[in-house]
Recover the amino acids of this structure.
């Protein structure tokens, strides 16, 4: 789909400053702007951080103070995320499902083992010496490397990229639609269509019944040598650093960046847009609600802190009932 910027401005009643009436083909990210696309600009500092292009259209809050170059196209919005969602849904109107599947015939794939009832979408490829269990579904334009082991009932949806020597255990879904939503002026939820994908690098192990969501515009990335236990959810645009280990029932919210060689204990919850340093250990059941910028062991039953500090706090918490009794006796 291609439309002139002036046509889109009229269609959606955008407040605007048009310098160049370019054709628009979709949406891209501010980090990697593509020609002839809309780009969300939430901070004026982005102009200093990223390359500015006259071939894109920036969507900016109308109350944002901008020291903008004179040669760029701007859309001013009272709710930029809502407008971004509208544009994503307009240019990409349906979820990333594959419409053309072929049931796998062993004769068509040499050096690959298939279980029963496997389906593969058009333009997808699987490397030699890979093994697929029963009821595996591979979407369209999926790339799977060599020597992969994909267990029963796994779904790998459109455009996902899987490296070499990757194990994906039973029931896991790779590339599901992310949970990105925004409220409009009437407090209704608008889903933000996710057009990125999932990239899983080499030597990764993923447990059973995990879900790894595709990115909103950029990709969700699982780096080399990562190991993931069962029942883990990794949301859109998360990046997991090399050789990180993630235990069962962990939830990592959108756009978080996990460092290299992290060890994340069971039932840890990491809120969105969190960054962790390399060589971080997070104790089981912790909640991570702020960035962790130094290596070490952290526990976050309360707001996360260095483990050594948390142990002192926890010691006094266990003594609170005795302290209260002592205070009450003194006050009598």
């Amino acid at each position: 789909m291609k439309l002139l910027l002036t046509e889109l401005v009229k269609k959606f009643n955008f407040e605007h400053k048009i310098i160049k009436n370019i054709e628009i083909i979709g949406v891209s990210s501010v980090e990697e702007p593509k020609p002839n696309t809309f780009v969300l600009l939430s901070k004026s500092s982005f102009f200093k951080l990223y390359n500015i292009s006259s071939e894109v259209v920036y969507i900016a809050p109308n109350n944002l103070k901008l020291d903008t170059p004179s040669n760029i196209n701007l859309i001013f919005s009272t709710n930029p995320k809502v407008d971004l969602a509208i544009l994503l849904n307009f240019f990409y109107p349906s979820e990333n499902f594959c419409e053309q599947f072929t049931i796998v015939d062993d004769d068509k794939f040499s050096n690959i083992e298939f279980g029963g009832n496997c389906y593969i979408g058009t333009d997808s490829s699987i490397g030699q010496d890979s093994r697929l269990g029963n009821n595996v579904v591979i979407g369209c334009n999926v790339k799977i490397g060599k020597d992969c082991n994909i267990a029963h009932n796994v779904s790998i949806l459109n455009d996902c990229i899987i490296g070499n020597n990757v194990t994906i255990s039973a029931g896991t879904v790779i590339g599901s639609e992310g949970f990105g939503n925004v409220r409009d002026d009437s407090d209704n939820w608008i889903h933000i269509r996710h057009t990125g994908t999932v990239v899983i690098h080499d030597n990764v192990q993923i447990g059973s019944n995990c879900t790894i969501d595709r990115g909103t515009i950029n990709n969700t990335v699982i780096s080399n040598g990562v190991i993931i236990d069962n029942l883990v959810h990794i949301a859109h645009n998360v990046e997991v650093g090399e050789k990180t280990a993630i235990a069962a029932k962990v939830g990592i919210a959108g756009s978080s960046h996990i460092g290299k060689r992290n060890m994340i204990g069971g039932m840890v919850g990491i809120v969105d847009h969190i960054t962790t340093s390399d060589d971080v250990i997070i104790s089981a059941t912790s909640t991570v609600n702020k960035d962790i910028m130094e290596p070490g062991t952290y526990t976050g039953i309360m707001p996360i802190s260095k483990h050594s500090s948390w142990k002192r706090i926890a010691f006094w918490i266990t003594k609170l009932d005795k302290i209260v009794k002592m205070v009450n006796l003194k006050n009598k």
Notes: The CA atoms of residues 31 and 49 lie 9 Å apart. Residues 101-310 form a domain with the UDP N-Acetylglucosamine Acyltransferase; domain 1 fold (CATH 2.160.10.10). The chain has two domains: 3-91, 101-310. The chain has five helices and 37 strands.
